[in-house]
Amino acid sequence: MRECQEELAITLSVGDVFIDVLHEYPDITVHLILFNATIKEGTPQKLEHNDIRWITPNEIPNYEFCPADKEILEAINRCHLGG
Predict the structure, then answer these.
(1) Helix, strand, coil in percent for the chain, rounding step 5
(2) What is the CATH number of the domain that holds 70?
(3) Which domain holds residue 65?
(4) Is the pTM of this model over 0.90?
(5) What's the first-to-final CA gap in the chain, in angstroms?
(6) Which end of the chain is flanked by fewer CB atoms within 10 Å, N or C?
């Protein structure tokens, strides 16, 4: 929540865990926990990033993501397809 306030100027209402991912790169292991959330207040602003945008699950293939995001993107697609 703090990161979203600092980097996007939004306040969230956070729900349950959407997905928990552990990904091993050659030099580091990252643990990503994503939550279901809604914007409670504010409009996302790019305070610390070069670009932000809303995309649909169908648009995911049009963008580059980190390898650690692969499992997350697959979960988004499964939800989108109802599976």
Answers:
(1) 35, 35, 35
(2) 3.90.79.10
(3) 2-80
(4) no
(5) 28
(6) C
